[in-house]
Amino acid sequence: MKKLVGLLVCLSLTLAQAQEYRVQKGDTLYSIARRHGTTVETLKTLNGLNSDVIKVGQVLRVSGSPSANRDWRFLQQGKAAWYGPGFQGRRTASGERFNTYDLTAAHPTLPFGTRVRVTNLRNGRRVIVRVNDRGPYIRGYVIDLSYAAAQAIGMSGTTTVRLEVLR
């Protein structure tokens, strides 16, 4: 009986912390999850969603709160490559023209405009880039950097990096 009472108390405290959020124009599950310190999978589970499609005005249950989860960060580690002169002036997936001398990057899932701190794990050098393209498309790679970003972290060829999304 004590276990049941304890379980009910925990459940009621959890439900009391749950909040609702009304979807705004431009929102994605990723942006909502990030804002509330949770994951896309958690949002989908809480709301019985089978896909990533959401509509403006839709009310979603979110767990936690922005202030309670302000230390949340997206971290990823893996191989990085760079792309340069051959892509100069071409349109990126975001629609902007690629400039090899801008501090930009391609990432498979992060929203365009996301700022990411990239740390070269071989030498500790870091650079902040803005995601404006999709890629890399090679298994085991987590990011493609512009030539300027690669130079900033002392990278030639490929290297192992840590990615940290900045707020």
Automatic annotation (TrEMBL):
Domain of life: Bacteria
InterPro entries: LysM, LysM_dom_sf, RlpA, RlpA-like_DPBB, RlpA-like_sf, RplA
Pfam families reported for this sequence: DPBB_1, LysM
GO terms, molecular function: lytic endotransglycosylase activity
The entry's keywords: Cell wall biogenesis/degradation, Lyase, Signal
SUPFAM superfamilies documented for this protein: Barwin-like endoglucanases, LysM domain
Record carries keyword Signal: yes
UniProt xrefs under NCBIfam families: rlpA
Protein name, per record: Probable endolytic peptidoglycan transglycosylase RlpA
Protein species of origin: Calidithermus roseus
Species classification: Bacteria, Thermotogati, Deinococcota, Deinococci, Thermales
Gene: rlpA
